[in-house]
């Protein structure tokens, strides 16, 4: 056994720097790592059994006795290393954009105000060069979301591995995105005089009315078994009313959040999620009472207002945790696709400002899965879940020690640097200058 | 109804009184009809005469003739045939002067911008190259009297105004005109009275300048060009603009700015060129009052105060900043603060949208502490003096224009009425029969019926109450008054029929009479005869209200000590006094005990050390230092904490007013970020609280050769100049690639050279070739100083250093080649995302790199950007920094540096240097900054933890040995902020309830400058 383990260890670490992906191993045993389960619990000296792409068991040191090495194709010794569930990046544009400045590479925004029928699923590009760079930091699952006008479309969730979008799909059409009308906001500095305030308030009212009409019509349509004429938009809304799909309501500011929660109540949306919620610190009671979970905006962000607590974005996760609100972190904003790899560090910052490290991890794993409706498959290291996880040399939420070595996606084992073009360039130029390649 | 004598004269005086005897006031123009000349004397007797703001004649006579004052005194002999106005009980003031108006001047035409950017002026003719420089423009040449506007001004009490066209940077000359209805020939009293300037290019459609610093650079260069034009006899060009510019220099120079920091900017230019500008302010000058005083400048202050915000909805209230609320509270006291500081100023109605606000706001300013004497001076003598027309207007002295107003009483009293406004001896009646003058008890006879009528005034309106001997019940009567025609309606009898009276005010005895139509349709005569005045208690309700309001206001008048430095959230009233003094005197000591010290020096990381700081420097680092006995020494327990040099951001665009890019020309080395530092950017405080102590404020990357940088320390609360790092080297921004090729600017930006990397190279060769030629000749006589080329000459002479925005290897190599062949060296390649590909060449050239930790994939030229860049560059021995280019990332530069531990395996000690020592080296500040070393500036950060750890927080940020940020005071600071907000919100709600106008709050999103 000792020999076999030693050999496998070498095999495993040889993978780190290669670009190959091993197939889906039938059975793997991960031993002695510190397992961060993604549900708040930590198991030191853990034993994790993986079979056919699923986690069979996660146990502590006591389970060692029961293990028969012969039962496993691969056994990996992880003493001193950390095991995490794959980090989930919700509300992203990964796979839908390559380069922000190049229009041809952008596939996330469609024309039209209400586009629930527009789906990200089929545009998701598994060969995006951004994807491997996310795996390198432990981000293994993304939600690819259309962006655009009032209802940009329907999102889907993907594993960050797959030959094509069908392979990679973890959950298709998980929910409809809704940009809730925004209470008039002034853009400064302005070159032209802004429209008078009153006009913009009227416009806001119009937008809300427009949205409510759409939802009323769509709800009525959903109640009819055989509509006279099929309406693709309304068809795409059916899941929102039945509760099989989520409604991701993007709202940042206090008035918008209040209005959005009222909207959820009015239309009895069963699986609503509040996205963004910069001002959630003002409304914890109301959000908690609504039962609507929150996908918080960037932790690494500036306060909305000059007078706000200067670190409110850092503190917001802790505030929601304390209030008992189910929330996770997301990363919408500038350069969001490439920046998704920094999600673990956003969680790390949240941990510095009010969360425990394990709560912070939950905010990018277990909670995210719950909110996306995929908690039965991923998000935690628990029996029966997909073996989508990674092994890091150190604390994954700290940029010094976030060093994923091995990555498993549904049991497929690969080096954390596999297919990472940045890593290829790094090694290429290290060789050019004859300087040591850092692991 | 004391004196109705005036009324009759109204009709006679509707025509002008101009003209003169043979030796005076001839005119060139023809008159249609019979000439109407007279040289009559007009005497205003028994009046209280305010000769000027000092001298008052309690009862005297003003004598005028031919539009000019003959005499004003207690005893004036009336010439025979003088028309006499008995002004018993009334007061005469010199009429007011507004020295900043657009009266009678057409607004500049705004031409919509063309699809393609316009790089050259669209002004045709031998004028300046820049469309916003229009010194050749003379307001007088387009001035046309505007009857309606003149009447509005006269109603407010004005008699004379400065007229200018508020358009462009050099706006040409302004004229002083009176507000009469006459031929312009008679109205203009000085054709070129002032030269006007601003930083706003106005209607100019030319690209340059796109930024505030561009406007400043343009002014500076134009001063030099004009001087050259004047002094150089061998010039080969004719330039009507420069010619005019030079002529205008003899006049008062009036500079309009948009905020207090721009006052300082204008004054700085003035100082450079020896010009004492008169500053047309924005009303927020009190926020830097000491600077205003020190400048010695005179000001024109607007009487335009911000409306309160409607903060009844607490969510809405969140969107009003402390800055806005405090300004609302304090702005009305701006003139009062100026008076107390003895700063010379005039007042203007210029910025008020609604002319009716002028008196309201002037009285408000007085309620806020401005003395009436000073108010009068600021509207008469001061503007007259500033404009050099104090021999003509502003006082009631012999020989001056007969420009005066006749008032019911004290001009500044809320009850005051202006009856007449005389302009150049011509009468304009404003409000003859004041409503309040009719107040009293009358016997009213309508046909055969007799009544008692009580008339009282409610503001400008009259109300009446009618009773009779038979029927003592009181009936309300509606009263209308137009000129001297009065109408009275009241209901009478069982049928409730309305009796309608129309009549006129008869002079003496005080009476009203006319005809009435009864309910039956019968016409009868009516007459009301004045019996007695109103009792005090019956006088104007409105007056009472006003005085109550003024009383409640007085209790809340803000003191100048309430100003925050900077004037926004997280500012403090303390800074101006204490911190600044301490900064100057450098007497402050801090002892940090038992701390882990990251020295960035050969000593490495030291455990359990004491660090003593005094006089702004690091004095001692030792095992155990006994606390000093200095009373002002602060002792900090550093157990478990880490002390590092302050974080330095090599590439920042915070704290910049009016755009970080002069995005017009390909070469803009003449513009200077140092001209436009915004010391009140909240980003400063936010970064300070994250351990940042110094930044290079860089010009943007819109052009191959951008503008000059400013190196600042984040001395929150101090003025822009005080933030600059003393004796720092000069830097300049260059840029390569997509931004300078305008690749991502949209389809209309395809006409500026360069559009390719080929062109970028030529821009450099051309610019440096010209710079060399310039340098060869610049000491010779007659060479025009060229600030653009001078900056490049500085680069060639190693007096200014290049930070070059760069991405791909080809262009990086190109610039190194250009440098080699032209004789300059790039100091730093910033961003330098493909630096790892050319690290060997950079090393060979001794060029440093300042990079993003992990940005990529946002445009084509960052396709090959890798997060290992910093590590490779460091490993190659290149001085490497990580930078932010972003106010958010600027708060986490320690985290960004820590990424080099992950990507590429730098040691923690090396990684910290990426955001401390290495940027200091790149900025040539490493002799003073970047290390914890005895003798260095005490710019330090005390961290809660290992500074590279994700949970590290800056607990104390120290600059020059002063604690500028202290996390232990966060709660107190934020609490104070909330308290001040709450106080102001309550005050605004009270103001709204008291009837003050309000505006709706809105969330403002500030745009951050990238790149």
CATH architecture assignment of the domain at 647-929 in chain B? Alpha-Beta Barrel
Chain-averaged pLDDT of chain A: 92
* Beta-strand content estimate of chain A: 15-25%
Main interface by residue count? A-B, 62 and 70 residues
CATH topology term of the largest domain in chain A: TIM Barrel
What can you see in these coordinates?
The complex is a heterodimer of chains A (439) and B (1011). By secondary structure, chain A is an alpha/beta fold. Chain A has two domains: 2-85 and 394-433, Roll (Urease, subunit C, domain 1), CATH 2.30.40; 87-181 and 225-376, Metal-dependent hydrolases (TIM Barrel), CATH 3.20.20.140. Helices cover 30% and strands 23% of the residues of chain A. In chain A, strands 1, 2, 3, 4, 5, 6, 16, 17 and 18 form a nine-stranded mixed beta sheet that branches. In chain A, strands 7-8-9-10-12-13-14-15 form an eight-stranded mixed beta sheet, sandwiched between helices. Among the domains of chain B are: 98-111 and 120-307 and 348-383, Metal-dependent hydrolases (TIM Barrel); 440-533, Lipocalin (Beta Barrel); 647-929, Metal-dependent hydrolases (TIM Barrel, Alpha-Beta Barrel). In chain B, strands 1, 2, 3, 4, 5, 15, 16 and 17 form an eight-stranded mixed beta sheet that branches. In chain B, strands 6-7-8-9-10-11-12-14 form an eight-stranded mixed beta sheet. In chain B, a hairpin with a 2-residue loop joins strand 16 and strand 17. Chain B is elongated. Chain B starts with a helix and ends in a 5-residue tail after the last strand. The chains are: A alpha/beta (439), B alpha/beta (1011). Chains A and B meet through strand 11, helix 6, helix 10 and helix 13 of A and helix 9, helix 17, helix 23, helix 24 and helix 27 of B. Strand 11 (185-188) of chain A pairs parallel with strand 44 (1003-1006) of chain B.
